[in-house]
Structure formats: C-alpha cells, structure tokens
Design a protein that fits this description.
54% helix, mainly alpha, 1 helix, single chain
Length: 67
Amino acid sequence: MFDEDEPPRPKRRLIPLVLDTLGVDELREYIAELRAEIARVDGDIAKKQGHRSQAESFFKAPSRSDE
C-alpha cells in the first residue's frame, strides 16, 4: 500500500545497470552511450525551444511605433 504522507516517487526513465559486473572498457562504452543519449535529448530540447520562440514571436502583438 502507499503511504499518503510520502511524496510520490519520481518515474525513472533509465534502468540503472549493475556496474559491479562491468569491466573498465564496458563502463567507458556505457558512458559514451549515456553521453550520446544526453546529446540527443539536448538537441530535442533546443529544437522545441526554437519552435516555441518562433510561435511566441508569430503570435506576439505588433509593436506600435507611432506612439
């Protein structure tokens, strides 16, 4: 059962590996995979922020230069 006094636990996106069974080269490969995933997510964030900025500028009220 859930305790109502405890905050909900955040959902995990990645399942942590058991690192004890991996060698140094495997750990370095794992780090490279994680860095590649971080770069992919950063790229998607940048793309979405760009779309948002374009939408905000499109829907922004025109400035009145005659005042």
